[in-house]
Amino acid sequence: MSVAAHRRTLPDAPARRGWCPGLSRPMPTGDGLLARVHPPLGILTLPQARAVAESARRFGNGHLDLTARANLQIRGVTEATRAPLARLLEAAGLGDRRADGGPQRLTLTSPLAGHDPAETFDVLALARAVEAAGLAVAGLPAKTLVVVEGRLGAEVPEADAYLFPHVSGDIRIAVAVEQGFHDLATCAAEEAQAAIAALLQAFARTGLRRMRDLSPDDFSALDNAVRVEIQTQVPSPVRERDRVRDATSPDKPDPSPQPSPARERGHGGVSRWAVPSSPRAGVEWLAPRQRILTVDAPFGRCTADALDHLVDLAARLGAEEIRLSPARGFVLLPLQDPSAADLTALARNFIVAAEDPRRSVAACTGAPACASGSTPTLNDAALLAEMFAPFGLEGRSAHVSGCAKGCARPGPADLTLVGRDGLYGAVVGGAPGDEPAIHLPIEAVLERLGRAKTIGLAAAFAPDRAWTDIGRTKRPA
């Protein structure tokens, strides 16, 4: 489809069938409608967290999904409950911010943004400025994402654009390319809002959905828009030359955001996906006087009651807010240490130990809750996690996806299982959309994973034994 045709077919969001103010149009799934909640900057006040739990209990089926973009999804919404759900969320300050089909939340930050002593600039202030700039850009695709990372050398997830620190103290602006990202320019923190606004406006004019799909001409247009904006604000040629200097030049080294070594792929060794350095599950000290409590939702799912219990604990420990993590969990900044009894109670619903094998496995909802899935991914992911534990301890990752969309983890993992017709396509070191080497039932996957401890993942999932494993009945031999 041409860019012009793509633009003409974009729906007028307020007139979309079923749209109501305060809530994006819920998506049909196997267990009803799915309503998305986008907490501003990924932060919930305690009253807002209670409102989300109440919404899921009263107007959904009581289940919540946590996403890799640190958002929430309420499952089991119906046509009859969607309007009162929207009103409750709107009253809690969690309603939609725009009605034109654009991104309800544009930025992703570390769950410790604003508290991490390693940050070199005010991450939350810059993220708010980027959100404000994005609201003014018409035609911005709904899934546009800008990562704002304040730590030198930190890992970053897949996104469209990146703002992270330069060793000089300025802000680096980069955009996604097919493998990793490419620096555009460097500017002062107070000029970043205008520069990113120019970038987003130029991107919206292309009509594309993701920046990594830019043609050379489109990329040049974005590059030029950012540089012209910076030059307009900063007339000094010396200052401008310093800002647009390649951050990786030998005379001015700058540690780039780092991919996880276990997830490197493609030429250049740049990861397409790496979970930001979210804190590990459990209790840790961020600074001499700042403790953090992190709990992960097993495979990104929890119940309304579990969230209510977490809010109760947060209030008791003196935490004023609950932050969502890209690792699909919650982070508290409590004033007091949780007791052993508190952690035991949390462990009934959440992952509270860094060594829990489920932390290394991502999974979507799967069948029957998702209409696109043909396999019970949550049950199978629990089985896989136990067998995958030795690899998880090495920092490796697995993904059990109900279909090739890869909602739980769009990018590559060390082992990705993609459901199709009741079987799993096995992809080693790739993403859900990549071509599987073989298709296996879960029993055969687990058997091969047992052998992988000795011979490695690639050898264990080589296609030479696919026929003997599956057989004519599609069952393990």
Structure summary:
With 477 residues, the chain is an alpha+beta fold. The chain has helices at residues 3-9, 46-59, 82-91, 123-135, 192-206, 216-233, 237-244, 304-317, 340-346, 377-393, 442-455, 457-460, 466-470; strands at residues 27-29, 32-37, 43-45, 63-66, 72-77, 107-108, 146-148, 161-165, 171-176, 181-187, 282-287, 290-296, 301-303, 321-325, 329-332, 361-363, 398-401, 415-420, 423-428, 438-440.
Structure description:
The chain has 477 residues and is an alpha+beta fold. It folds into 4 domains: 15-91, Alpha-Beta Plaits; 112-263, Sulfite Reductase Hemoprotein, domain 1 (2-Layer Sandwich); 282-356, Alpha-Beta Complex (Sulfite Reductase Hemoprotein, domain 2), CATH 3.90.480; 359-470, Sulfite Reductase Hemoprotein, domain 1 (2-Layer Sandwich). 31% of the residues lie in helices and 19% in strands. It is built from 13 helices and 20 strands. The chain has helices at 3-9, 46-59, 82-91, 123-135, 192-206, 216-233, 237-244, 304-317, 340-346, 377-393, 442-455, 457-460, 466-470; strands spanning 27-29, 32-37, 43-45, 63-66, 72-77, 107-108, 146-148, 161-165, 171-176, 181-187, 282-287, 290-296, 301-303, 321-325, 329-332, 361-363, 398-401, 415-420, 423-428, 438-440. The strands form 4 sheets. A 5-stranded antiparallel β-sheet has the order 1-2-5-4-13. A 5-stranded antiparallel β-sheet has the order 3-14-15-12-11. The termini are far apart.
